[in-house]
Amino acid sequence: MSEERHGTRRSGGPRKAQEIFDATLDLLAEKGYEGLTIEGVAQRSGVNKTTIYRWWPSKGALLGAALIGARQLDFTPPDTGSLTGDLESLLHTVVTLLTTQPASDVAVSVLGAATQSPELAVHVRDFFADRIALERPVFDRAIARGELAADTDVTLLMDLLAGAAWVRVVLRQLPLGKDFVSRTVATVLNGARVQT
Q: Which of 22, 61, 108, 188 would suit a FRET pair with 51, their CA atoms being 20 to 30 Å apart?
């Protein structure tokens, strides 16, 4: 991954960027967005707060960089050889994020905070734009194999899949059955009508 993806710049960046990002996400999971402070991140990461402020002038900017650059949220797009397999793998990643602590605490805190903080909402949009850019090869391969139309709205496709997991886990707080991922992918790809 490039330095820019990890929230640093080509001209340099804090040497302890990963420690800063890890501390940011750990504190967010523990204390929520309201309890996240630059001072707390500085203390936990062992980095002077002036260094953090030099690179990220607010906690929203720091959290946005951490979402994109933290190793604990690193992402490698799948390549199973089929669209169905790749989408199931992508959705499984979302489900794991939403059901495994501390990642689930981070995800829920970010979602809640983004509705209250316009600044954080911008950084959350950047995070999702980064993810869809990383996922793009999955869809390019599916188009090349003839599994998807070239004009497929891949963002909508991923929103449908991830949205199903978010609603089921976070909003309805229902358990996910063993076949949730495969049923969801099949429903999104094939629809709910009887296949003839």
A: 108
